[in-house]
Amino acid sequence: MQTYTFGTQLINGYVLLAAKIPNIGVCGFGIKPKIHLFKHMLYSYKLLLLSGCERFVSLLLFNCEQNEDLIGRMSRLSRRLDSRQVSRRCLECYLLKAGMLWTRFKRTHGI
């Protein structure tokens, strides 16, 4: 129940700021699709709690946002590469970047 209560307070505060901020001439706190998704998620939690469920799977399990981001990045990358070997080159570029990020992470964190 705490997740629903705190989540609702967070969204109500965010919406209040979104309504008040433009009045003082500042651009910020736009209502983003993630906030909308979060509101639907909290409503589903409320229905599950009212039905007597004590445990349930997070609804973020069905969120495909990250997958769409990866597909978008890979499609942009594939348009810049030779079409005869696009699969191999995309995989090589992806693994090269992942290796560079891993090396930087290890260096930064002393691993």
Q: Give the CA-CA distance, first to last residue.
A: 40 Å
Question: What gross morphology would you assign?
Answer: extended
Biggest sheet, open or closed, and with what strands and sense? none
What is the succession of H and E elements? HHHH
Mean pLDDT: 84
Low-confidence stretches: none
Written account of the structure:
The chain is mainly alpha-helical. It folds into two domains: 2-60, no CATH class; 65-109. It is 68% helix and 0% strand. It contains four helices and no strands. Helix 1 runs antiparallel to helix 2. The model has no long low-confidence stretch (mean pLDDT 84).
Q: What is the compact description of this entry?
A:
With 111 residues, this protein is an all-alpha fold.
Would you spell out the secondary-structure blueprint of this structure?
Layout: H1 2-20, H2 33-50, H3 65-79, H4 86-109
Helix pairs in contact: 1-2
Highlighted features:
111 residues; 2 domains; mainly alpha
